[in-house]
Specification:
single chain; 110 residues; mainly alpha; Arc Repressor Mutant, subunit A; two-stranded parallel ribbon; 5 helices; 2 strands; DNA binding; catalytic activity; Alkylated DNA nucleotide flippase Atl1, participates in nucleotide excision repair, Ada-like DNA-binding domain
């Protein structure tokens, strides 16, 4: 895996505000990689970032992660049902790009 892209994905995930989520595709658009690549990064390296804030387009995480994610969502006030995050919790690509532009430090830009 490309270390620069991995770092970019993880930094972007850390910018997702408390109480909100983003889907793999949105992270991929901002990080210039595919949604599958984002999923792979999260699976291999995401345990030290706010992984519960990255869900699929339907607002769902893998079943094994849901119990822990639900607790995090409750703690952060993220609107959700037992199965998935509510649409109102999603941030869009424009908002995530703005967060990346204003707060992200891209290791590939130097």
């Amino acid at each position: 895996m490309d270390e620069v892209v991995v770092e970019r994905v993880l930094r972007i995930v850390e910018l997702v505000p408390t109480g909100h989520v983003v889907n793999y595709g949105t992270v991929g658009l901002v990080a210039s990689c595919s949604p599958r690549y984002v999923g792979r990064v999260m699976k291999e390296f995401g345990s030290n970032v706010t992984w519960w804030r990255v869900v699929n387009a339907a607002g769902v995480l893998p079943e094994a992660l849901l119990p822990t994610a639900r607790g995090r969502w409750d703690d952060e006030g993220t609107p959700h049902t037992h199965e998935k995050v509510s649409r109102s919790a999603f941030i869009d690509v424009d908002d995530l790009e703005e967060l990346w532009r204003t707060h992200g430090i891209d290791p590939g830009s130097s």
